[in-house]
Amino acid sequence: MGAYYDEIEIEDMVWDEEKRVYHYPCPCGDRFEISREQLKEYEDIATCPSCSLVIRVIYDPFDYQDDEEDDEDKDDNPASDDQDEKDDEDSDTDEHFQDAFENFHISEPKSVPEQSPAITVSA
Fold first, then answer.
1. Among 35, 49, 99, 117, which is most exposed with the fewest C-beta within 10 angstroms?
2. Alpha carbon 19 to chain centroid distance?
3. Per-residue pLDDT averaged across 98-104, rounded?
4. What is the pLDDT of residues 44-100, one digit of tens each?
């Protein structure tokens, strides 16, 4: 999509706690809106519910990766238990890797006696 009405930095938008969205005034009189979940999913397009205009939101996606909202939703999701078990298995693998790395040693190469350079004399 290349036809944005404008590009707005997230710092210029206002957080609406009740609707759980960032918003910014639209020329039509309504507001552009984008949720934290959309930002976390790397969506950077805020839409206006009343007209066809859209804006591109400039933000750092890494700021939304560890969002607490999603952690609350995980508790209600039984599939997250399976993910927790997989994470436990991954941490066991990491421990084995760390143990192997702790036992890895690089020794100094054996020194080779220097040889004197060959000198040739032509007669």
1. 117
2. 25
3. 57
4. 999 999 998 999 999 988 877 766 544 444 444 444 455 555 555 555 555 555 555
The residues with which 40 forms a beta bridge, in sequence order, are none
How far apart, in whole angstroms, are the C-alpha atoms of residue 43 and residue 46? 8
CA 25 from chain centre, in angstroms, equals 28
Sign of CA dihedral 7, 11, 13, 17: positive
pLDDT of residue 76: 47
- In terms of Cβ atoms closer than 10 Å to its own Cβ (0-12, 13-18, 19+), residue 119 is exposed
Q: In what order do the strands lie in the sheet with 14-16?
A: 6-9, 54-58, 45-47, 31-35, 21-25, 14-16
Which long-range contacts (C-beta less than 8 Å, at least 24 apart) are formed by 5-11?
A: 5/53, 5/54, 5/55, 6/55, 6/56, 7/55, 7/56, 7/57, 7/58, 8/32, 8/46, 8/55, 8/56, 8/57, 8/58, 9/57, 9/58, 9/59, 10/39, 10/57, 10/58, 10/59
